[in-house]
Amino acid sequence: MNRHLRYTLLLGLGLGMGLSGCQELDLPPTDRPTDDTFWTQPADASNVLNSCYAGLYPSEYFFFNETLSDNAFNKSDVDGSNARNIAEGAYGTNQARITNEWGYHYGGIRACNRVLNNIDKIVSLDANLKARYIAEAQAIRAFHYFQLMTWYGDVPLITTELSVTEANAVPRAPRTEVLAFVLSELDAAAAVLPLNTAYATEDKGRFTKGAALALKARVLLYEGRWADVSAVTTQLIGGQAGTYSLFSSYAGVFSPANENNSEDVLDLQYVFPLRTYSVQRQFIPRTEGKLVCSIAPTQELVNDYVMANGKAINEAGSGYNEATPYAGRDPRFAATLVYDGYSWRRPDNSTIVIRTFPGTGDNSVDRADASPTGYYTAKYFDPTADANLNSGLNLMLIRYADVLLMHAEALVEQNKLTAADWNTTIAALRRRAGFTDQAALTFPGGDQASLRAIVRRERRTELAMEGLRIFDIRRWRTAETVLNGYAHGIKIGDPNVDNGYLRVDQRTFDPAKHYLWPVPQRERDINANLTQNPGW
To answer: What share of the chain is helix, strand, coil (3-state, %, to 5)?
Structure first.
């Protein structure tokens, strides 16, 4: 069990309340920790830093982000902080996810600022450990600001502890300023943080040099700074930033037996039973989760999985047969998604065949609590979870496969992708996945547009159901295309309507306003200096 996960969230919350509640007193209170009484021992810094890791990112956002995109549909009007409303374009400045995400990240930033502003008070803290703690807090804070600027654009840039009055008057900083801060913080952290191989087992899950640089690469990717992206990913691929590699099995990457494997660059650490999540109840087959399926993969995602020969299903010579749509597909398909006829292995190693067509059983689309698309998710199912499906399986925010995909995309956008680059990125991912047909593994050549389409599709299928698709379609500026119209399910409907594929949800995306979320009205009611984004 990772020692740094043996925290209590109450410590961080209690300290926060203590600090904000005692600022006007001449003498520190004796019933709760304050600056004067808390920051005295090395363990104090460690404990608060651990609370920063606890607040890095919630499992709800990790999984429900897929329903914001064209990869999945959120059947519930409540689960996922009403993410369904966002995908439908039917949301405003008081929408739950919009409001909660803002507050979540600023809570995380406050915790990091607490570490950075008080750590110098602990005179007995080893200098090297102190430097590492500072770098970790900087990297975590940079992650929070990256999320904020990605969703909201201009946001308040707060780098010190503020009183409530002060915090409620800070205006939004230009996005360019926040971006520069994020990159500088990640550079500073990467210069100090150890390699992943230098951490002891009990410290797995902490930010490393490689994690800071991989996060930097993602920030640069979202900015379209392609030469900078490839410069950073080259370090990660070349081993200068740590030791990473593709795990031998695609499905095995997400198995509890293989946590902290060679592909894991940055993750959310969970430890059963101290810290768990139960979101899997909402995306696995209904008979297994025994809850309403709130995260249902779409037919649009299914259609993007290539055939075993590497060809898209609508491409000449692919061999795709609509009558047997799941045969001969990309091996990652069956490792990620559950479909009609899927053989599901239960925790006791028994198997059942999942049937999703109408009238075929408890997982069929005609059940009110079943998947409305006819698909469920296999990726991140934890067979070791308890009877209530509380899982301690770590969730990877960045894995080495993503580094390879970022590298390939950056080279394509610079029109520099070679056969050698293909072999070490896309072909490597496909070989690991189980492709054996040389047609799928050989560099396809072609112009920049055709290679771009291949790499983007590869990114979608390799990383499906990992919460990243929404960010990709926003940065590619394709959201107004893929999020306008119907999301579909299996082919069981009227053949005269969308060729028989079920219409499960009407999506709307207005490019004039939806590329930025609104600043939450609750925050603007508190802080009159917060301006609003266009269209809101």
So the answer is: 45, 10, 45
